Amino acid sequence: MIDFITEKVTCWERIQREDKPIYLYGMGDGAVKIMTVFKRYGIKVKGVFASDDFVRGHYFCGFKVMKLSEVEEIEDDFAVVLAFGAGYEELVNRIIGISRKHTLYVPDVPVIGGGLFTYDYCREHEGELETTYSLFADELSRKTFASVIDFKISGDIKHLESVTTPKGEIYKSIIKPNLNENYIDLGAYNGDTIKEFLEITRSRYVRIYGIEPDKKNFRKLERAFNEKDGIELHNSAAWCIDTELPFSSKAGRNSSLSNMGNETTSARSVDSILKGREASLIKMDVEGAEREALWGCSQTIMKYKPRLMVALYHRTEDIFELPLLVNKLNPKYKLYIRHQLYIPAWETNLYAVNDSSSTIK
Predict the structure, then answer these.
(1) Higher confidence at residue 357 or residue 333?
(2) Which domains are seen in the chain, by residue range?
Protein backbone atom coordinates (compact mmCIF):
# COMPACT_ATOMS: atom_id res chain seq x y z
CA MET A 1 0.00 0.00 0.00
CA ILE A 2 1.22 3.50 -0.87
CA ASP A 3 0.56 5.52 2.29
CA PHE A 4 0.25 8.97 0.66
CA ILE A 5 -2.48 7.90 -1.81
CA THR A 6 -6.00 8.14 -0.37
CA GLU A 7 -8.15 7.43 -3.44
CA LYS A 8 -8.60 3.88 -4.65
CA VAL A 9 -11.85 3.92 -6.68
CA THR A 10 -11.22 5.21 -10.20
CA CYS A 11 -13.13 8.01 -11.84
CA TRP A 12 -14.27 5.52 -14.50
CA GLU A 13 -15.75 3.19 -11.86
CA ARG A 14 -17.52 6.11 -10.17
CA ILE A 15 -19.07 7.18 -13.49
CA GLN A 16 -19.97 3.56 -14.25
CA ARG A 17 -21.99 3.43 -11.00
CA GLU A 18 -23.67 6.83 -11.58
CA ASP A 19 -27.47 6.61 -11.70
CA LYS A 20 -28.01 10.16 -13.01
CA PRO A 21 -28.01 10.94 -16.75
CA ILE A 22 -24.44 11.58 -17.93
CA TYR A 23 -23.61 14.59 -20.09
CA LEU A 24 -20.22 15.24 -21.65
CA TYR A 25 -19.02 18.85 -21.36
CA GLY A 26 -16.75 19.66 -24.28
CA MET A 27 -15.58 18.36 -27.63
CA GLY A 28 -12.27 17.60 -29.30
CA ASP A 29 -9.45 15.11 -28.76
CA GLY A 30 -10.03 14.78 -25.01
CA ALA A 31 -13.72 14.04 -25.51
CA VAL A 32 -12.93 11.38 -28.13
CA LYS A 33 -10.47 9.71 -25.74
CA ILE A 34 -13.03 9.74 -22.92
CA MET A 35 -15.74 8.30 -25.16
CA THR A 36 -13.35 5.50 -26.15
CA VAL A 37 -12.81 4.58 -22.49
CA PHE A 38 -16.57 4.83 -21.88
CA LYS A 39 -17.12 2.12 -24.48
CA ARG A 40 -14.70 -0.14 -22.61
CA TYR A 41 -16.56 0.41 -19.34
CA GLY A 42 -20.03 0.25 -20.90
CA ILE A 43 -20.81 3.83 -19.86
CA LYS A 44 -23.69 5.46 -21.73
CA VAL A 45 -23.76 9.19 -22.47
CA LYS A 46 -27.13 10.96 -22.58
CA GLY A 47 -25.88 14.06 -24.40
CA VAL A 48 -23.13 16.60 -25.05
CA PHE A 49 -23.00 20.29 -24.19
CA ALA A 50 -20.43 23.04 -24.69
CA SER A 51 -19.79 26.58 -23.57
CA ASP A 52 -22.28 28.95 -25.18
CA ASP A 53 -19.69 30.43 -27.58
CA PHE A 54 -19.08 27.00 -29.13
CA VAL A 55 -22.70 25.95 -29.69
CA ARG A 56 -23.64 26.42 -33.33
CA GLY A 57 -26.17 23.68 -33.97
CA HIS A 58 -23.52 21.09 -34.84
CA TYR A 59 -23.09 17.46 -33.75
CA PHE A 60 -20.38 15.55 -31.88
CA CYS A 61 -20.18 11.74 -31.76
CA GLY A 62 -23.78 11.58 -32.96
CA PHE A 63 -25.12 14.03 -30.34
CA LYS A 64 -26.42 17.49 -31.10
CA VAL A 65 -24.29 19.87 -29.06
CA MET A 66 -26.39 21.74 -26.49
CA LYS A 67 -25.91 24.63 -24.09
CA LEU A 68 -25.78 23.96 -20.36
CA SER A 69 -29.00 25.93 -19.91
CA GLU A 70 -30.73 23.67 -22.46
CA VAL A 71 -29.67 20.56 -20.56
CA GLU A 72 -30.89 22.09 -17.29
CA GLU A 73 -34.28 22.73 -18.89
CA ILE A 74 -34.85 19.06 -19.74
CA GLU A 75 -33.12 17.37 -16.76
CA ASP A 76 -33.95 17.72 -13.08
CA ASP A 77 -30.45 16.57 -12.23
CA PHE A 78 -27.55 15.09 -14.14
CA ALA A 79 -23.84 14.30 -13.93
CA VAL A 80 -21.26 16.27 -15.90
CA VAL A 81 -18.07 14.78 -17.33
CA LEU A 82 -15.51 17.45 -18.22
CA ALA A 83 -13.74 16.68 -21.50
CA PHE A 84 -11.37 19.63 -22.07
CA GLY A 85 -8.70 21.62 -20.28
CA ALA A 86 -9.37 24.90 -18.47
CA GLY A 87 -6.44 27.10 -17.61
CA TYR A 88 -7.75 30.59 -16.94
CA GLU A 89 -9.61 31.85 -13.90
CA GLU A 90 -12.98 32.68 -15.46
CA LEU A 91 -13.38 29.23 -17.00
CA VAL A 92 -12.06 27.41 -13.93
CA ASN A 93 -14.57 29.32 -11.79
CA ARG A 94 -17.33 28.34 -14.23
CA ILE A 95 -16.41 24.68 -13.86
CA ILE A 96 -16.28 24.97 -10.08
CA GLY A 97 -19.74 26.60 -10.23
CA ILE A 98 -21.06 23.64 -12.25
CA SER A 99 -19.59 21.24 -9.66
CA ARG A 100 -21.64 22.96 -6.95
CA LYS A 101 -24.88 22.45 -8.87
CA HIS A 102 -24.23 19.05 -10.45
CA THR A 103 -22.07 16.01 -9.86
CA LEU A 104 -18.81 16.63 -11.74
CA TYR A 105 -16.29 14.08 -12.94
CA VAL A 106 -12.97 15.04 -14.55
CA PRO A 107 -11.39 11.89 -16.01
CA ASP A 108 -7.64 11.79 -16.50
CA VAL A 109 -6.64 10.77 -20.02
CA PRO A 110 -3.06 11.23 -21.24
CA VAL A 111 -2.34 14.04 -23.67
CA ILE A 112 0.11 11.76 -25.47
CA GLY A 113 0.38 7.98 -25.40
CA GLY A 114 -1.85 5.48 -23.66
CA GLY A 115 -2.62 3.97 -20.29
CA LEU A 116 -4.95 5.12 -17.54
CA PHE A 117 -3.81 6.39 -14.16
CA THR A 118 -5.69 4.04 -11.85
CA TYR A 119 -4.97 2.73 -8.35
CA ASP A 120 -3.91 -0.58 -9.90
CA TYR A 121 -1.46 1.36 -12.08
CA CYS A 122 -0.06 2.96 -8.91
CA ARG A 123 0.37 -0.46 -7.32
CA GLU A 124 2.26 -1.64 -10.40
CA HIS A 125 4.62 1.34 -10.03
CA GLU A 126 4.65 1.48 -6.24
CA GLY A 127 8.43 1.55 -5.90
CA GLU A 128 8.89 4.34 -8.44
CA LEU A 129 6.13 6.45 -6.90
CA GLU A 130 7.49 6.06 -3.38
CA THR A 131 11.05 6.85 -4.49
CA THR A 132 9.84 9.95 -6.34
CA TYR A 133 7.86 11.09 -3.29
CA SER A 134 10.98 10.78 -1.12
CA LEU A 135 13.07 12.91 -3.51
CA PHE A 136 11.06 16.12 -3.15
CA ALA A 137 12.68 18.95 -1.22
CA ASP A 138 9.66 20.37 0.62
CA GLU A 139 6.34 19.39 2.12
CA LEU A 140 4.26 21.29 -0.45
CA SER A 141 5.89 19.22 -3.21
CA ARG A 142 5.02 15.99 -1.44
CA LYS A 143 1.46 17.21 -0.84
CA THR A 144 1.11 18.33 -4.47
CA PHE A 145 2.44 15.02 -5.77
CA ALA A 146 0.00 13.05 -3.60
CA SER A 147 -2.96 15.31 -4.41
CA VAL A 148 -2.36 15.20 -8.17
CA ILE A 149 -2.21 11.40 -8.02
CA ASP A 150 -5.43 11.31 -5.99
CA PHE A 151 -7.03 13.54 -8.63
CA LYS A 152 -5.79 11.37 -11.49
CA ILE A 153 -7.36 8.31 -9.85
CA SER A 154 -10.64 9.84 -8.69
CA GLY A 155 -11.37 12.70 -11.12
CA ASP A 156 -12.34 14.86 -8.12
CA ILE A 157 -11.19 18.47 -8.54
CA LYS A 158 -11.06 19.11 -4.79
CA HIS A 159 -7.61 17.50 -4.86
CA LEU A 160 -6.35 20.18 -7.28
CA GLU A 161 -7.98 23.12 -5.51
CA SER A 162 -5.98 22.39 -2.36
CA VAL A 163 -2.55 22.53 -4.06
CA THR A 164 -2.84 25.20 -6.77
CA THR A 165 0.14 27.58 -6.65
CA PRO A 166 0.35 30.90 -8.58
CA LYS A 167 3.09 31.00 -11.22
CA GLY A 168 4.53 34.19 -9.75
CA GLU A 169 5.10 32.45 -6.44
CA ILE A 170 6.94 29.61 -8.19
CA TYR A 171 9.30 32.06 -9.90
CA LYS A 172 9.84 33.97 -6.67
CA SER A 173 10.43 31.06 -4.32
CA ILE A 174 11.95 28.33 -6.52
CA ILE A 175 13.24 29.44 -9.93
CA LYS A 176 14.49 32.90 -8.87
CA PRO A 177 15.52 34.25 -12.32
CA ASN A 178 18.46 36.66 -12.37
CA LEU A 179 19.63 39.22 -14.92
CA ASN A 180 22.41 37.09 -16.42
CA GLU A 181 20.56 34.04 -17.66
CA ASN A 182 21.34 31.80 -20.60
CA TYR A 183 17.74 30.69 -21.07
CA ILE A 184 16.66 27.71 -23.19
CA ASP A 185 12.96 27.51 -24.13
CA LEU A 186 12.05 24.06 -25.48
CA GLY A 187 8.57 24.22 -26.96
CA ALA A 188 8.72 28.00 -27.39
CA TYR A 189 5.34 28.08 -29.21
CA ASN A 190 4.72 31.68 -30.35
CA GLY A 191 7.12 33.20 -27.82
CA ASP A 192 4.72 33.55 -24.91
CA THR A 193 7.07 32.05 -22.33
CA ILE A 194 10.05 34.01 -23.68
CA LYS A 195 7.99 37.20 -23.25
CA GLU A 196 7.13 36.06 -19.72
CA PHE A 197 10.83 35.53 -18.99
CA LEU A 198 11.73 38.96 -20.38
CA GLU A 199 9.09 40.64 -18.20
CA ILE A 200 10.51 38.97 -15.10
CA THR A 201 14.12 39.89 -15.92
CA ARG A 202 13.27 43.35 -17.26
CA SER A 203 14.68 42.25 -20.66
CA ARG A 204 18.12 41.58 -19.15
CA TYR A 205 19.79 38.32 -20.20
CA VAL A 206 22.96 36.92 -21.70
CA ARG A 207 21.38 34.72 -24.39
CA ILE A 208 18.04 33.12 -25.19
CA TYR A 209 17.46 30.03 -27.33
CA GLY A 210 13.93 29.35 -28.59
CA ILE A 211 13.23 25.88 -30.03
CA GLU A 212 9.85 25.26 -31.71
CA PRO A 213 9.02 22.51 -34.27
CA ASP A 214 5.68 23.71 -35.67
CA LYS A 215 6.26 25.85 -38.78
CA LYS A 216 3.31 28.22 -38.25
CA ASN A 217 4.18 28.72 -34.60
CA PHE A 218 7.81 29.26 -35.55
CA ARG A 219 6.88 32.06 -37.97
CA LYS A 220 5.10 33.83 -35.11
CA LEU A 221 8.18 33.27 -32.95
CA GLU A 222 10.39 34.78 -35.63
CA ARG A 223 8.15 37.83 -36.03
CA ALA A 224 8.33 38.44 -32.29
CA PHE A 225 12.08 37.97 -31.72
CA ASN A 226 14.09 37.64 -34.93
CA GLU A 227 15.43 41.19 -34.73
CA LYS A 228 16.39 41.06 -31.05
CA ASP A 229 20.04 40.71 -30.09
CA GLY A 230 21.13 37.58 -28.29
CA ILE A 231 18.08 35.50 -29.23
CA GLU A 232 18.70 32.38 -31.31
CA LEU A 233 15.72 30.55 -32.81
CA HIS A 234 15.56 26.96 -34.09
CA ASN A 235 12.67 25.45 -36.09
CA SER A 236 13.25 22.02 -34.55
CA ALA A 237 11.86 19.56 -32.06
CA ALA A 238 13.74 18.93 -28.82
CA TRP A 239 15.18 15.41 -28.79
CA CYS A 240 18.02 13.26 -27.49
CA ILE A 241 20.02 13.35 -30.75
CA ASP A 242 20.04 15.30 -34.00
CA THR A 243 17.75 13.58 -36.51
CA GLU A 244 14.54 13.88 -38.55
CA LEU A 245 11.25 12.74 -36.97
CA PRO A 246 7.57 12.40 -38.03
CA PHE A 247 5.55 15.34 -36.77
CA SER A 248 1.84 16.06 -36.37
CA SER A 249 1.34 19.75 -37.08
CA LYS A 250 -1.78 21.33 -35.56
CA ALA A 251 -0.59 24.95 -35.71
CA GLY A 252 -1.10 25.33 -31.99
CA ARG A 253 0.10 24.21 -28.60
CA ASN A 254 -0.78 20.57 -29.27
CA SER A 255 1.49 19.98 -32.26
CA SER A 256 3.67 17.00 -31.39
CA LEU A 257 6.04 14.30 -32.55
CA SER A 258 3.97 11.36 -33.73
CA ASN A 259 4.39 8.17 -35.74
CA MET A 260 1.14 9.20 -37.44
CA GLY A 261 2.53 12.64 -38.26
CA ASN A 262 1.56 14.45 -41.46
CA GLU A 263 5.11 15.78 -42.06
CA THR A 264 8.67 15.52 -40.80
CA THR A 265 10.66 17.93 -38.69
CA SER A 266 14.26 18.49 -37.74
CA ALA A 267 15.02 17.31 -34.20
CA ARG A 268 17.94 18.65 -32.14
CA SER A 269 19.46 17.99 -28.76
CA VAL A 270 20.23 20.91 -26.48
CA ASP A 271 23.79 19.64 -26.13
CA SER A 272 24.18 19.86 -29.92
CA ILE A 273 22.67 23.34 -30.14
CA LEU A 274 24.82 24.74 -27.33
CA LYS A 275 28.08 23.05 -28.43
CA GLY A 276 29.48 23.33 -24.91
CA ARG A 277 28.12 26.81 -24.19
CA GLU A 278 26.41 27.52 -20.89
CA ALA A 279 22.75 27.13 -19.98
CA SER A 280 21.52 28.48 -16.66
CA LEU A 281 17.74 27.92 -17.05
CA ILE A 282 15.93 25.38 -19.23
CA LYS A 283 12.16 25.22 -19.68
CA MET A 284 10.63 22.25 -21.49
CA ASP A 285 7.02 21.74 -22.47
CA VAL A 286 7.43 19.53 -25.53
CA GLU A 287 4.19 17.55 -25.77
CA GLY A 288 5.38 14.20 -24.48
CA ALA A 289 9.02 14.31 -25.62
CA GLU A 290 10.32 15.55 -22.25
CA ARG A 291 12.18 12.31 -21.49
CA GLU A 292 14.12 12.45 -24.76
CA ALA A 293 14.68 16.20 -24.40
CA LEU A 294 16.19 15.66 -20.94
CA TRP A 295 18.61 13.07 -22.31
CA GLY A 296 19.50 15.62 -24.98
CA CYS A 297 20.47 18.03 -22.18
CA SER A 298 22.53 15.49 -20.23
CA GLN A 299 26.00 16.96 -20.92
CA THR A 300 24.74 20.47 -20.24
CA ILE A 301 23.08 19.35 -17.00
CA MET A 302 26.21 17.58 -15.78
CA LYS A 303 28.50 20.52 -16.63
CA TYR A 304 26.41 23.61 -15.80
CA LYS A 305 23.58 22.33 -13.55
CA PRO A 306 20.96 24.69 -15.05
CA ARG A 307 17.68 25.13 -13.24
CA LEU A 308 14.98 23.07 -14.93
CA MET A 309 11.25 23.62 -15.48
CA VAL A 310 9.75 20.42 -16.90
CA ALA A 311 6.11 19.61 -17.79
CA LEU A 312 4.95 16.46 -15.98
CA TYR A 313 1.51 15.93 -17.47
CA HIS A 314 1.69 14.77 -21.09
CA ARG A 315 2.21 11.03 -20.58
CA THR A 316 0.73 8.80 -17.89
CA GLU A 317 4.19 7.87 -16.59
CA ASP A 318 5.71 11.37 -16.64
CA ILE A 319 4.84 12.25 -13.05
CA PHE A 320 7.33 9.71 -11.70
CA GLU A 321 9.60 8.87 -14.65
CA LEU A 322 10.78 12.44 -15.25
CA PRO A 323 11.74 13.29 -11.63
CA LEU A 324 13.60 9.98 -11.43
CA LEU A 325 15.44 10.77 -14.67
CA VAL A 326 16.42 14.27 -13.52
CA ASN A 327 17.70 12.79 -10.25
CA LYS A 328 19.72 10.26 -12.26
CA LEU A 329 21.25 12.98 -14.43
CA ASN A 330 22.16 15.12 -11.41
CA PRO A 331 21.54 13.67 -7.92
CA LYS A 332 22.51 17.03 -6.35
CA TYR A 333 19.42 18.83 -7.68
CA LYS A 334 16.71 19.81 -5.24
CA LEU A 335 13.40 18.73 -6.78
CA TYR A 336 10.04 20.49 -6.41
CA ILE A 337 6.63 19.92 -7.96
CA ARG A 338 3.90 22.54 -8.27
CA HIS A 339 0.46 22.61 -9.88
CA GLN A 340 -0.68 25.90 -11.42
CA LEU A 341 -4.30 26.86 -12.04
CA TYR A 342 -5.63 24.23 -14.45
CA ILE A 343 -8.34 21.59 -14.66
CA PRO A 344 -7.49 18.70 -15.22
CA ALA A 345 -3.96 18.24 -13.80
CA TRP A 346 -2.17 19.92 -16.70
CA GLU A 347 0.32 22.62 -15.74
CA THR A 348 1.78 20.30 -13.15
CA ASN A 349 5.52 20.86 -13.47
CA LEU A 350 8.82 19.70 -12.05
CA TYR A 351 11.42 22.24 -10.91
CA ALA A 352 15.05 21.31 -10.32
CA VAL A 353 17.42 23.82 -8.74
CA ASN A 354 20.78 24.20 -7.05
CA ASP A 355 21.33 26.16 -3.86
CA SER A 356 23.39 28.73 -5.79
CA SER A 357 20.24 30.19 -7.48
CA SER A 358 19.82 33.88 -6.72
CA THR A 359 16.94 36.32 -6.88
CA ILE A 360 16.60 39.43 -9.05
CA LYS A 361 18.10 42.45 -7.35
Answers:
(1) 333
(2) 11-161 (3.40.50.720), 176-311 (3.40.50.150)
